[in-house]
Q: What sequence folds into this?
């Protein structure tokens, strides 16, 4: 996790809140933020505007800034006061990405790890409080054995290797899902990482591992029924908060933004109860290509939406439109 980038985002925050009365440190940091990740191509098609070829300096001065857009500017467009506090992501498209490269599926998962790193870092830098990543579904156990074994090893290995860096960045790890299904080595190594990171107070990184929403809901109902049977809970006491308390996500607020990569428009058994009022964002970008700037785009899109929670637009005060009551 880049310390410099973290400083830069903090400086952008200071710039936003303090305006022109910046400390030298913040001002230096702000300049750094503009350098962030250099440049990326926005509209290469503009190269083909032939009438303008007659005047190259004019083309350069007028159009090059349109073609190469500084990355920092996407970040600067974000309203850091109105970030979704919980973002959930379905990391889809690893297999297709690998196939497009003429490689096998595990190659896609391997490159997907780079995106995980980048998005965890980006979320922590912004100050997002909760990030849930759908890493392995209950249904994924039915994939070919080589893929399941390879993916499991990759997941556990990555978490172990990244634990020190997560710790340095004050990131706490949580795992939701039917972890009893995991092989013993995976359970042991995961537990070690969970213990090591349990006192951290920054970003809460929630890995959905061997998770499916229907499994979770069935489990919750079984536990509620058991508690009713023993008299710990009365049927008339059951309300929405009770249900929340029996879900694996009981410690976390519901996601406000759910992102799915790779062009599929489904929720695929992911946080069905918790996503009731989430804003859904779908992108064609395959997960191994998904980077911070794509995350910023999703958040910008989220910030443009009016969140009504069943009310009318007129009933909402401006400050209620993004933050959930
Ligand atoms: C879905 O793509 C992706 C997965 C089932 C696995 C996601 C796992 C990673 C990105 C590795 C993450 C590592 C950590 C530490 C969390 P797919 O295989 O369904 O792709 P396809 O739809 O193109 O076939």
A:
């Amino acid at each position: 996790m880049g310390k410099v980038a973290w400083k830069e985002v903090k400086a952008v925050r200071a710039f936003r809140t303090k305006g022109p009365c910046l400390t030298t440190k913040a001002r230096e940091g702000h300049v750094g933020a503009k350098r962030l990740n250099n440049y990326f191509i926005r509209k290469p098609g503009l190269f083909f505007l032939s009438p303008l070829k007659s005047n190259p300096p004019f083309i350069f001065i007028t159009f090059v800034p349109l073609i190469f857009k500084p990355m920092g500017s996407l970040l600067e467009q974000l309203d850091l006061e109105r970030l979704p506090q919980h973002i959930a992501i379905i990391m889809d498209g690893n297999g297709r990405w690998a196939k497009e490269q003429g490689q096998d599926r595990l190659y896609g998962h391997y490159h997907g790890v780079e995106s995980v790193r980048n998005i965890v870092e980006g979320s922590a830098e912004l100050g997002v409080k909760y990030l849930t990543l759908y890493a392995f579904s209950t249904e994924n156990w039915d994939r070919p054995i080589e893929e399941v074994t390879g993916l499991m090893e990759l997941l556990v290995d990555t978490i172990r290797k990244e634990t020190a860096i997560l710790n340095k960045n004050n990131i706490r790890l949580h795992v939701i899902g039917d972890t009893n299904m995991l092989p013993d080595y995976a359970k042991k190594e995961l537990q070690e990482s969970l213990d090591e990171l349990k006192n951290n107070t920054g970003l809460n990184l929630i890995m959905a591992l061997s998770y499916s929403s229907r499994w979770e809901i069935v489990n919750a109902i079984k536990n509620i029924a058991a508690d009713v049977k023993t008299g710990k809970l009365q049927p008339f006491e059951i309300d929405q908060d009770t249900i929340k308390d029996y879900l694996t996500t009981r410690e976390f607020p519901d996601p406000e933004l759910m992102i799915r990569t790779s062009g599929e428009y489904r929720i695929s058994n992911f946080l069905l109860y918790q996503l009731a009022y989430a804003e859904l964002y779908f992108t064609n970008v395959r997960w191994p290509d998904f980077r911070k700037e794509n995350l910023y785009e999703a958040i910008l899109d989220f910030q443009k939406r009016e969140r009504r929670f069943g009310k009318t637009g007129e009933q909402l005060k401006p400050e209620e439109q993004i933050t959930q009551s």
